[in-house]
Known about the structure:
23% helix, alpha/beta, Stationary-phase Survival Protein Sure Homolog, Chain: A, globular, 6 helices, 9-stranded mixed β-sheet, 256 residues
Amino acid sequence: MTKPLILVTNDDGITAPGIEALVSIAKTIGEVIVVAPDSPQSGMGHAITVNAPLRLNRGNYFPDIVNYSCSGTPVDCVKIGINKILKKKPDLVVSGINHGSNAATNVIYSGTMSAAVEGAIENIPSIGFSLLDHSFDADFKSSKTFIKAIILKALKNDFPHYTCLNVNIPKLIEKEIKGIKICRQATAFWDNDFDERKDPLGKKYYWLTGQFGGHDGGSDTDLSALEKGYISVVPTQFDMTAHHAIGELNRWNFNQ
Amino acid sequence: MTKPLILVTNDDGITAPGIEALVSIAKTIGEVIVVAPDSPQSGMGHAITVNAPLRLNRGNYFPDIVNYSCSGTPVDCVKIGINKILKKKPDLVVSGINHGSNAATNVIYSGTMSAAVEGAIENIPSIGFSLLDHSFDADFKSSKTFIKAIILKALKNDFPHYTCLNVNIPKLIEKEIKGIKICRQATAFWDNDFDERKDPLGKKYYWLTGQFGGHDGGSDTDLSALEKGYISVVPTQFDMTAHHAIGELNRWNFNQ
């Protein structure tokens, strides 16, 4: 069997330790190419760059791997990686390892996961990995065995069409991780606030801040699995239709 | 009954004709406040600004309406509008009218719809409106009667929890519009390409382009309704779990 072609990206930028860890795992499995943002792109969601040009620079961040940094968003990286660099679809898109959680509603704000969702839109098996540790010095080693196992399962099995996996890893040493659980996305939210500050000229500016909370209480959610010491895997799709609400809206009789 | 409080935003920016049209409708229904981006934010998806401060400026774009322009994304506008300006939840969030379609998979790239989805995350009845005409001079008048009717229905009925509406309007004169259809999001995609150009110094840059296509053939989709001359209404949620894939993934036996 020929080696699978794996496109690696992230949202923390090409110099982040998280992507280095992911590349070190991916290269033991397949032929790896990296196309990642040239600067941090956290919270970029599914943004694409339509009003500005993109720059693409061959890099030397990974001496033995072809790697490019891109001036755009994580989704731009996937699009330009497939269209301009690979000129074909890879066998797998992996994104991360994110420095910080993308569980629950975070998925929708996440550049890491949006890159994986873009892979799903292209119907390529795609996985976003996130470690529940925001720090630059986060310990990515403890999750390597699990990440490799998840990638191998994804390559071996029939991957669900138009779907990607949202994998979140608790901040634990390897032997404390209890295993892997398939979950649904928890309904939990940011309680936002804005720091109000003054610039040197005395003019106000605001900085987004907040607390995450309001867990939905389900035992089948990603947040519940993570709290219990499991790695959570949520199959994630881009059909945002609230199918359950269609009947209710039809009873509103819009045309009367 | 007191007048409903309506927060209006968009992604084309506070000076776009589309938001002017939406404000002119909303102010016949309720108390209106505008918090919209100070520059075009098309394709920003659910991006939020976490690595930079935000500026908020009281504007005079709408002489009889309190209005602010914000340096952030459409989602930032909703967050800062609720937290810093209103200091309470409005009765309704409306976003648009977008210059261009947000039907099918476009919903995930759309700043207009992401603002509505952010309203849904706050469990506020929220609606994104888009007209299938990209031009600055798009005819927003023809859809005013329908938009007003949809807003009134949304205020009168029990709005489905944690849901927003994705409303797309065909480029037709009013009497040619056949009515309103509740739909699901079509599975249809961009066939992307990148224009490759050279800057004045001879260095390459890329510009995202593409063709939209690959309609899924269903007669219950937004694209199908629009093609037939109907306004499409898709109830839209932020639970991205591919619930149908959970069983299949459990059979991958991750823990063996």
